[in-house]
Specification:
This protein is α+β, with helices and mostly antiparallel strands and 524 residues long. The chain has 16 helices and 13 strands. Among the domains are: 175 residues, no CATH class; 72 residues, no CATH class. The chain is globular. The N terminus and C terminus are likely disordered.
């Protein structure tokens, strides 16, 4: 007990982004214990790595087969100590061994208790996926060791994805192309009559499936939304029946309103299934027998594309609006030139002459409480995710909240609006979450898509520190960085398999030229 207390008392102070919590004695004690636990974990891994290395040295003069079996035996012994499988132990020891030799700053932060094993493994995965030269590897090591300390695990994963893509775009494109060869579908049957279906597929395909599935699940309750076949029933149901559901927020778990049957016109009780259950039933039905809806499904993908990428002048990767995934430049150009989709274009404040924009969405004042669709899109591009510290819920699934409430005189302007998921929206409404100072959310002086970050903050909002990532869209950025085009891709799915196609210019006068040049370069 004395040793544990001494180890906890020697813990470093809370990092800057947690400094506001240091006044709570219970939280301070929890931080010290967490540091002690991480140090103990690092000491355990270090001992196992030393054991593996000593085993390798002992059998160094033996034939390859003997050396390989000796290494497997050492890993098996480590697995028994950790209480995990041999395969998992191999993964952990390989990753931490790479970190110890390739990423010294990350390894030092791990041994000091500043980061945990999960963050070390993610950093190693990012470092070894591409073929990074030594100078970029050192750059990644330094940046990752710092970012891992002040980001949640999900935020850190998204940051690594962006950073690796921008660090060496050509290497990233090659890694993406190579990784497509590893795609697969896997089934894992569990107890209680349930199974997991896992698919490793290109991100653009996965994003399109995700958007279509969510749009279909939420659109089941829209007037006139029928089906060509009977609607997918809940598991265990013995009779086929149709369901309509109440439109709902992404963060709600159940529906509780009545809806009308679109085919009979009769009002009936709402579908008792949660949104997640409806999505699972739809997904199963689509894969099993291809049932679809008569009503169109408006699913959109929102990405940020450097304008020089569109024109072919650079190969900077494109980024999802929520900063969670990246795609290589050639995929972004192909997506922008796709004639079977609707294209809505928004240009950021990186334009040298802002007067070229048709509408400055983030500087206008709107009459009424609720922001119009165009402003909502602009805010989604600007914020990326829920603005509560550490939250990674996509802004597309968030409420657009007035920082100063509407009923208290708050205006419907970009500077007074931010994205909050339903959970954090409720916390803010009850006084447990406070927005940052207005000046910090006006869209001025923000970063670009190069992997850099703003300074940290100790307030309840996301005014820096753990922000969701680059905010190039609609923001002033340094001249040396490429201009960024925010792009929506909409595709309407119908039961007959047809799509409506239309491309339109939405906010700047020369977006159509960019689109045409992108299409021409793609055809070449």
């Amino acid at each position: 007990m004395a040793a544990s207390t001494s180890s906890a008392s020697s813990a470093p102070p809370m990092p800057e982004h947690l400094r506001a919590l240091a006044g709570e004695p219970e939280l301070t004690a929890a931080w010290e214990q967490q540091v002690a636990a991480r140090r103990a974990e690092a000491a355990t891994i270090t001992a196992l790595l030393d054991y593996r290395q000593r085993t390798a040295a002992h059998y160094a003069q033996e034939p390859l087969v003997i050396r390989s079996e000796a290494d497997r035996a050492a890993v098996r012994d480590a697995a028994r100590i950790l209480g995990i499988s041999d395969r998992t132990a191999t993964t952990i020891l390989n990753a931490t061994g790479d970190a110890k030799h390739l990423l010294p700053r990350t390894w030092r932060a791990f041994c000091e208790g500043l980061i945990d094993l999960s963050r070390v493994r993610k950093t190693v995965d990012a470092a070894t996926t591409g073929d990074l030269p030594d100078d970029l590897l050192r750059q990644l090591d330094q940046a990752a060791a710092e970012q891992a300390q002040r980001r949640s695990l999900s935020e850190f994963h998204h940051w690594l994805t962006r950073y690796i893509a921008s660090l060496d775009p050509e290497s990233y494109a090659r890694a993406c192309e190579k990784e497509t060869q590893s795609r697969f579908v896997r089934f894992e049957h569990q107890s209680h009559g349930m199974s997991y279906l896992q698919a490793y597929i290109p991100t653009l395909e996965a994003a399109a499936i995700e958007k279509r599935l969510k749009a279909a699940a939420r659109g089941m309750d829209q007037p006139g939304a029928g089906q060509t076949n009977s609607e997918p029933a809940s598991p265990g149901a013995h009779t086929a029946g149709s369901h309509t559901t109440d439109a709902r927020s992404p963060d709600c778990c159940t529906t509780n309103h009545q809806a009308a049957d679109p085919r009979s016109g009769d009002a009936r009780t709402s579908d008792p299934r949660t949104l997640a259950q409806r999505e699972a039933d739809l997904f199963t039905a689509w894969l099993r027998d291809g049932r679809v809806y008569d009503a169109p499904i408006d699913a959109k993908i929102m990405i940020l594309i450097p304008e020089t990428t569109l024109t072919g002048d650079s190969d900077e990767p494109a980024m999802a609006a929520d900063r969670s995934w990246m795609i290589p430049a050639h995929q972004a150009r192909n997506l922008a030139a796709n004639p079977e989709a609707n294209h809505d274009w928004y240009h950021g404040r990186s334009r040298e002459n802002p007067e070229n924009a048709e509408h400055d969405l983030l500087s206008a004042r709107y009459i009424g409480r609720y922001p119009p669709a165009r402003l909502r899109d602009a805010l989604i591009f600007r914020d990326g995710t829920c603005q509560a510290d550490g939250c990674t819920i996509s802004a597309e699934r968030c409420d657009i909240d007035h920082q100063t409430p509407w009923e208290h005189g708050g205006e419907t302007t970009a500077s007074n609006l931010w994205a909050l998921c339903r959970r954090h929206h409720r916390m803010k409404s009850h006084g447990f979450l406070h927005p940052p100072p207005q000046a910090k959310n006006t869209g001025e002086g923000s970063e670009t898509g190069t992997g850099t970050d703003t300074s940290s903050s100790t307030d309840g909002g996301r005014s820096g520190g753990t922000d969701p990532g680059p905010k190039a869209a609609f923001h002033a950025v340094p001249d040396q960085h490429p201009q960024t085009v925010a792009y929506l891709r909409r595709r309407r799915y119908r039961s007959a398999g047809t799509t409506t196609t239309r491309t339109r210019q939405c906010s700047i006068s020369d977006c159509a030229k960019v689109t045409r040049r992108s299409a021409e370069s793609s055809q070449e």
